[in-house]
Every structure is written in C-alpha cells, then in structure tokens.
Amino acid sequence: MRIDFDPASVAPQDFYRLLTATVVPRPIAWVSTVTADGTPNLAPHSFFTISSVAPPVVQFTSVGRKDSLRNAEATGQFVVNFAPEPLFDAVNGTATDFPHGVSEFEQAGLATEPSLRVKPPRVAQSPVALECELHSTLGIGNSTVVFGRVVHAVVSEEVMVDGHPEITRLLPLARLGKDEWSTLGQVRELARVPYAEHGRG
Q: What pTM was computed for the model?
C-alpha cells in the first residue's frame, strides 16, 4: 500500500516537507558572501551539488531571495565552506533569519580568513573552501539556482591522507527532514564493476 501525493492539490509548504524528508541526506553549502558595502554574510543551503567538472562548477539553491543570492548577484562572488560536525551549532546558528546587513560570522562567533581569489571571506575553522565566481543563475518557481565557477580551493592539511581529503577526518554534516541532521555514520567501500567483468565468477 502506498500513499499518493499530488503536488497540484497539496499545499506547497507540505510538499516541501515531503521532498526534504525523502531527498536525503543532503550536503550543505555553507555560503559566505559580502554585501555591496562589504558586510560579510554566512548561511547554510542544503540544496547543493556539483554541476560540472570541466570547468568546475558547483550550485546551490536559494528558496526565496535570501541574502546569499542577493549578495552573489550584486558582487559576482561567493565561497562554499564545508560544514563539518564539530561546527554543528555554528552551522545551525547561521541559519537564523538575521536582518539584512547583520554578520552571521559575528553572531555565531566564527573567525574569518581572507580568500585568495574572491572578496567574501572563508570560515577559518572550516576544513574546505571553494572560492567561486558567479557563473549564472536560473529562476525556477519560488527558487533560484546559483551556479558558481570554482576559481580556487583550499583544504586543511589535517583532513588530508595521501594527498586526498579523508572522509573520516572531514566529518560532514547533512540535512534530513524536519529539524533533523545526520553525521557520517558507517562508511562502506564498493568499487564499480566494469562491464567486461560483469557476471564473472
């Protein structure tokens, strides 16, 4: 037995809760931007993924016109900071709907560090930062997809093993439904099976 949900007859907020409870876990883009006058802004966005590898492009979605979107449009730049488990409270704290022009860095007690290629600062305690130039935006309904070309990346030495970021050191946070979050949990390794070897053995 299954329960049917028709987006045309379900309230948008109710269907949003259904989507965010079933499209899980969702990685978090902890997006830092600056206003036109230079005030830093920081907010988590859980609609986030890679769009392209060559050129390297990442994307996040602003549901409504959030400060991250407005600032990225105004300045053409943003930084995606990695959201790790040790900074759980700070990540959640920067999701507060502070008035425009208030620095979430200050409110959450987070230190900044200068970016190399863009004006928005990085989260100093975050183990990874992707500095981005705005590639384009795409409006869909009440949301805007923001595409950023990665022009520089930094990774903390502490999370690297044999030249590669190690997942058990990164300790990513992810969003689930309602007010639920997830942490790393069990990690399993399984290589893809080449077609030439499929069915053997």
A: 0.94
